[in-house]
Specification:
Layout lengths: L1 H18 L9 E6 L8 H14 L3 E6 L4 H10 L4 E5 H8 L13 E17 L14 E3 L6 H13 L4 E2 L4 H9 L5 E5 L7 H7 L4 E3 L4 H10 L4 E5 L10 E13 L4 H13 L1 H7 L8 H9 L10 H9 L11
Length: 330
């Protein structure tokens, strides 16, 4: 009995030592990052973000999950199922201010960490469909971008504002690509890589010629009256084969964080992202030359009552000597 008692005491001491934190150590912070569909050109970017955080932010274990993009990521942040993720300016703005689909369930926990790209949303039709304008999409088989994404939500707002009623196919990007190839749908829209087509649209174009459908100034003004949070971008002649200068809808892409991420972790994450661009550019070349802090502040101050920055972003941007307006401080 004495030997058994000594054994029990010894085991208890060992277990107790194993469970006692070592002085100066910190518990690992697991960060779940909501991205988008694996078929999107933006997915590799978030894989690169996870690598940056795991390599350069001590005590962080970041994991990327494929999701339905912005709208899905907003829901996950609201429910505490994601710590960070891809959220576009329009989706974040609507979610924060209880507009549209978020009228009864605003997402106030979201915090902007940094901007990584403003991308064009290309509206394209199979050339053999004969469609040359947005209005000719009426009653045509059309994919408004990945189901649950901010692009889908904004596209449907655009169509409603212009009085266009396509025959929507709402599903996954990968399925839409295949359906465009075999002519089951005749048109779709998709966020690009910067101002260019992304891999999904390039894939379709290798099978069947595409025609890009531009927005006229009249159409932009009409949409802007109904949905002032939607952004626009000008594309220079020659950027898209066969197109002169034109305008189209834009997606301003942020890495958004949950307000519950500690300030210190947020600060180190933003600092790492800004100081290790090489890893991100290798995965997402359209980021080359981007000044993350300046672009982030410029995008947020372009709208009234923007979503606030994460406390860590505020700390890092101020450290750089940048002017962070009081409207951006949570």
């Amino acid at each position: 009995m004495k030997k058994l008692a000594v054994l029990v005491i010894t085991i208890s001491a060992i277990v107790g030592f194993m469970l006692t934190p070592i002085a100066g150590s910190a518990a690992t912070k697991n960060l779940t990052i909501g991205s988008t569909s694996t078929s999107s050109g933006h997915y590799p970017y978030f894989v690169a973000v996870a690598k940056v955080l795991n390599d350069y932010v001590p005590g962080v274990n970041a994991t990327v999950v494929a999701t339905g993009a912005s709208m899905d990521n907003l829901k996950r942040i609201a429910k505490g199922q994601a710590d960070m993720g891809l959220i576009t300016l329009d989706a974040g703005y609507m979610g924060y201010h209880a507009l549209g689909n978020w009228k009864d369930a605003p997402v106030k926990k979201q915090r902007v960490m940094w901007l990584y790209m403003t991308t064009a949303v290309h509206y394209v039709a199979r050339q053999d469909s004969g469609i040359k304008t947005l209005y000719e999409l009426d009653k045509k088989k059309f994919h408004p971008s990945m189901r649950g994404s901010a692009t889908e939500s904004s596209t449907m707002t655009v169509m409603k504002s212009l009085g266009i009623a396509p025959d929507y196919y709402r599903g996954d990007t990968g399925d839409a690509v295949n359906m465009m190839k075999d002519n089951r749908i005749v048109a779709m829209c998709k966020s690009g890589m910067g101002k260019q087509y992304d891999a999904s649209l390039m894939d379709i174009a290798t099978f069947t010629p595409l025609r890009t459908l531009p927005f006229t100034d009249k159409e932009i003004n009409k949409v802007s009256e109904a949905a002032p949070w939607i952004s626009w971008i000008s594309i220079s002649a020659g950027t898209i084969k066969g197109m002169g200068d034109f305008k189209t809808m834009a997606m301003v892409n942020f890495v958004m964080g949950n307000e519950d991420i500690p300030e210190d972790i947020g600060y180190k994450a933003v600092k790492a992202a800004c100081e290790h661009m090489d890893i991100q550019v290798a995965a997402f070349p359209a980021m080359k030359g981007l000044n993350i802090p300046a672009a982030t502040l410029e995008a947020l101050t372009s709208v009234n009552n923007p979503m606030p920055l994460h406390r860590g972003s505020v700390k890092y941007f101020k450290e750089l000597g940048l002017n962070v307006g009081k409207e951006l401080i949570p």
